[in-house]
């Protein structure tokens, strides 16, 4: 069954009820797989309050509950937090996984049952980069504190680091490594799928920068192309400037910037950050990175693998046949959930 968003097709395809503000659906699973329940609930995000872009602090999370959750009321479960990519949201990520019914099928194939949580990290410029920015909000704390606390308080989790994993695709893979470096107290295992933005910045095309500087209202940029909007999102995340309205960031080449924006972007690349966080990465029970052999991000992933190997950090690294997006569902089903099944604590 193909699920993309909470569209008319989605509503007709699934049995849906709403209880106390929680949208719930029961996925009809393939033969041999038991049903999983999906809830979509609005939660507060104190860490996002007051951001200069006006990104919503209260936003939804999607929660997959395993087949035994309703029947076994005493059982507690490990949790995997799954981060979506740029120019996407958690509804789209759910749609990707629905193509193979990844969660239910993984459980049916032998992965231990767990809760899977998908936050929404879409912002004015189409993606938060999962950073802490006065302009976009503190997304690191939102994921590691606000979302985790809500899930632990409202679901039967095993509320311990050893039972929490963090995964993500593309921008979400970047967020997995970034947050993982900074919050080893919260998560015990990391899986980065086709992670972006690993290498230090080489700057931005001058013609693009000239075009972007011509805009005076952020609302006028919403119809720009993927890479143009991604440049704006990167600036909002990595070179914020609360004294530079209405965008509240500095672009590479801005002569009045206090600190060179390119240097600030470089400082936010995991390959530039990694030496500072080696000891944190050493504490993880398991780390994995995967990427397609036709993915344009392959060089950065290889360098991350090389750095982890050089520094004696145990990890798994897979290059599979595919591009940046065509095997997300299969990898989540066949690799990501089995990986966390082995890595995370159960009762």
TrEMBL record:
<dbReference type="InterPro" id="IPR050583">
    <property type="entry name" value="Mycobacterial_A85_antigen"/>
</dbReference>
<feature type="signal peptide">
    <location>
        <begin position="1"/>
        <end position="33"/>
    </location>
</feature>
<dbReference type="Pfam" id="PF00756">
    <property type="entry name" value="Esterase"/>
</dbReference>
<dbReference type="InterPro" id="IPR000801">
    <property type="entry name" value="Esterase-like"/>
</dbReference>
<keyword id="KW-0732">Signal</keyword>
<dbReference type="InterPro" id="IPR029058">
    <property type="entry name" value="AB_hydrolase_fold"/>
</dbReference>
<protein>
    <submittedName>
        <fullName>Esterase</fullName>
    </submittedName>
</protein>
């Amino acid at each position: 069954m193909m699920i993309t968003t909470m569209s008319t097709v989605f509503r007709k395809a699934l049995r849906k009820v709403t209880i106390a503000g929680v949208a719930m659906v029961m996925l009809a699973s393939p033969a041999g797989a038991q049903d999983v329940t999906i809830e979509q609930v609005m939660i507060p995000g104190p860490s996002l309050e007051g951001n200069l872009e006006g990104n919503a602090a209260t936003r939804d999370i999607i929660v997959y509950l395993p087949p035994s959750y309703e029947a076994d009321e005493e059982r507690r479960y490990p949790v995997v937090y799954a981060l979506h990519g740029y120019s996407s949201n958690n509804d789209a990520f759910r749609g990707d996984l629905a193509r193979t019914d990844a969660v239910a099928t993984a459980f049916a194939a032998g992965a231990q049952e767990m809760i899977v949580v998908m936050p929404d990290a879409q912002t004015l410029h189409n993606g938060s980069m999962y950073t802490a920015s006065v302009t976009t909000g503190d997304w690191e704390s939102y994921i590691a504190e606000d979302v985790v606390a809500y899930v632990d308080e409202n679901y039967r989790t095993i509320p311990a680091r050893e039972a929490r994993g963090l995964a993500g695709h593309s921008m979400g893979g970047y967020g997995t490594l970034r947050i993982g470096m900074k919050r080893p107290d919260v998560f015990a295992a990391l899986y980065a799928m086709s992670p972006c933005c690993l290498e230090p910045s080489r700057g931005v095309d001058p013609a693009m920068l000239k075009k972007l500087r011509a805009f005076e209202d952020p609302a006028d940029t919403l119809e720009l192309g993927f890479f143009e909007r991604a440049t704006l999102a990167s600036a909002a995340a990595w070179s914020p400037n609360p004294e530079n309205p209405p965008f509240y960031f500095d672009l590479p080449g801005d002569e009045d910037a206090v600190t060179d924006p390119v240097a600030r972007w470089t400082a936010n690349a995991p390959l530039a950050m990694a030496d500072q966080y080696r000891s944190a990465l050493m504490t993880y029970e398991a780390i994995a990175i995967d990427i397609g052999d036709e993915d344009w991000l392959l060089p950065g992933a290889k360098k991350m693998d090389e750095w982890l190997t050089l520094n004696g950090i145990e990890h798994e690294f897979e290059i599979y046949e595919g591009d940046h997006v065509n095997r997300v569902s299969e990898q989540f089903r066949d690799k990501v959930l089995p990986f966390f099944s082995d890595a995370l604590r159960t009762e």
